[in-house]
Design a protein that fits this description.
The structure is a single chain. With about 220 residues, this protein is of the alpha/beta class. The protein has one domain: Rossmann fold (3-Layer(aba) Sandwich), CATH 3.40.50.150. The protein contains six helices and nine strands. The chain has helices spanning about 5-25, 30-40, 70-80, 95-105, 115-130, 165-170, and strands at about 60, 65, 85-90, 110-115, 135-140, 150-155, 170-180, 190-195, 200-210. The longest helix has 19 residues, at about 5-25. The protein is globular and about 55 Å long. Bound molecules: S-adenosyl-L-homocysteine. The site of S-adenosyl-L-homocysteine has 24 residues, from β2, α4 and β4.
Length: about 220
């Protein structure tokens, strides 16, 4: 068959629509948009949902979890104000998509998930993409990562009722944490926490819906 380049054309168009949707939903930071242009979400979604990877919606991944909606990934990354020399902790590796985007913006990313299977799958993608500044491991992230602490930035991609104490403690002075808070089966609030000289400052950003932060390491 003769390759007339149709696939390339629709691919480029799909990616353009993807970026346009991000911008129209408030993702305006150029560095964040560039990172999201570089990291192909299609690599992080398997099975029959793969064809929907460029739509602005959350999608199911293994272990009954979800890959977040791209615009929410963008808005959270933007709110985190990541700097090139930062060390970032992510709780909730899931597909690895959010961690891959963060890896483009900072010096080092630690990402943890309570499901071994998700961590292993994400590690394989990081390896294939040559994202050597990401360390992924299995742990109960509600305790943070005490051995790697403190962190310039912390992002939590599962909802807790309140910001977990250990995470607040592992945030550097001047650091920022972005996380959803609220009960798991209702609409939660995305909040931004800044650690200053006088304590923690909380800002409510927008309503969101995430899977719950669950204690303990899972069986799979
Ligand atoms: N950031 C992900 C989406 C995460 S979905 C992405 O880009 O695809 C939320 C993830 O949080 C799930 O994979 C779930 O297993 C994980 N999780 C829930 N509670 C946790 C805990 N206590 N410690 C670590 N991971 C947890």
């Amino acid at each position: 068959m003769i390759d007339i380049g149709d696939d390339d054309g629709s691919d480029a168009e799909r990616k353009m629509r993807f970026l346009y949707a991000l911008r129209s939903r408030g993702v305006t930071d150029t560095r964040v948009l560039t990172a999201m242009e570089r990291i192909d979400r299609g690599l992080f979604v398997r099975g029959h949902f793969a064809s929907r990877a460029y739509e602005d919606m959350p999608l199911p991944i293994a272990c009954g979890q979800t890959i977040s909606q791209p615009s929410v990934v963008g808005l959270m990354t933007q709110a985190l104000e990541v700097q090139p020399r930062d060390t970032v902790l992510e709780i909730g590796t899931g597909s690895g998509y959010q961690a891959a985007i963060l890896s483009q913006l900072c010096r080092r990313v630690y990402t943890v998930d309570r499901h071994r299977k998700l961590v292993a799958e994400a590690q394989a993608i990081f390896r294939d993409l040559g994202l050597v500044n990401i360390t992924a491991f299995t742990a109960d992230g509600s305790h943070g990562a005490p051995e790697q602490a403190p962190f310039d930035r912390i992002i939590v991609t599962a909802a807790a009722e309140d910001p977990p104490g250990p995470l607040l403690a592992q945030l550097k002075l001047g650091g920022i944490m972005v996380l959803p808070v609220g009960q798991s089966d209702t609409v939660q609030s995305l909040i931004k926490v800044r650690r200053g000289e006088k304590g923690f400052d909380y800002e409510e950003l927008r309503p969101v819906r995430f899977v719950p932060l669950v204690e303990g390491i899972a069986q799979d």
